[in-house]
Amino acid sequence: MILIDGKKTSSEIKNEIATRVAEIKSEGGKTPHLAAVLVGNDGASQTYVGAKVKACEEVGFKSTLVRLEETVSEAELLQVVEDINNNPDIDGLIVQLPLPKHISVDKVTNKIRPEKDVDGFTPANVGRMTLNWPAYVAATPYGIVELLKRYNIETSGKHCVVIGRSHIVGSPMSILMARNGYPGNATVTLTHSRTKNLSEITKTADILIVAIGKPEFVTGDMVKPGAVVIDVGIHRIEDSSKKSGFRLIGDVKFDEVAPLASAITPVPGGVGPMTIAALLYNTLQSAEKKVFG
Ligand code: GUN
Question: Which Enzyme Commission number(s) are on file for it (predicted)?
Fold first, then answer.
């Protein structure tokens, strides 16, 4: 069984990005610049945005964090996005989700200039990805694609089963795995909460991508021996034996599934660290005008 090491792979990607940034700077080019907008005080969002800002520093990017009160109006937030859209120094813009209930995620997402949408959430980028055009691909699916590539996992002709149809992970993942390219050319089954006989389907998966958001949902009896298993879930559960009082688990029951799998991502240290590397990569692509020209 191969343990797919997202922590190591993401460090390698960050090193590659840092090398390129140093080159750009030495040639007198502009420093890539990511802006993050964080609304309110959600603990997880603060942690994620903090990690993104820290990663920018590590690779030599500039970053700007715009913090807004939970009570900010939709109009005010849309204006902040518009101002960043029009700021020529900023290459990438992310608005951390979730947003407070009084703000429309769709309206805010649609306000982001596709050329700066390094999260790949806008209709323009989702459409471009679907058409197999150059696009910013959302961080989690992009990170998974990169892991499959860097671990030379064969995807052509394989049966790939995706569990979960979210806009951020399951849906784009199914499109990427089916597209004509590598990774891709898989026969894809996208499953979700209404799927019947789920374990009958997962047992036929050569590649199983789990993004359902339920702790240890996938058990050993749902997995074909030799399958490649990618676990997107991350959940905190109480554990008094840990100093922090909790430990992290995924959507896959690792101890049961790992012995069966030919390759598997752990939690933590699998898909999670790759998402930040993907965001940095998209921001570098934007600074170098590689996607929209
Ligand atoms: N919230 C959870 N994941 C993400 C992400 O990838 N991007 C943004 N902007 N918000 C998130």
Answer: 1.5.1.5, 3.5.4.9
* Domain range enclosing 32: 28-113
Residue 278 has pLDDT above 90, yes or no: yes
Counting ligand 1 atoms within 8 A of each CB, the residue from 94, 105, 166, 275 with the most, and so the one to mutate, is 94
- State which amino acid sits at residue 125: N
Greatest alpha-carbon span in the chain = 58
Residue the block writes with tokens 């991502």 = 265
Instruction: Give per-residue pLDDT as tens, 16-27.
Output: 999 999 999 999
Residue 195 lies in a domain: yes
Residue 228's domain is classified under what CATH number?
Answer: 3.40.50.720
Ligand 1 touching residue 94 (CB < 6 A):
yes
214 is catalytic: no
The pTM is what? 0.96
Q: Is 179 within the bounds of a domain?
A: yes
> Does residue 285 form part of some domain?
no
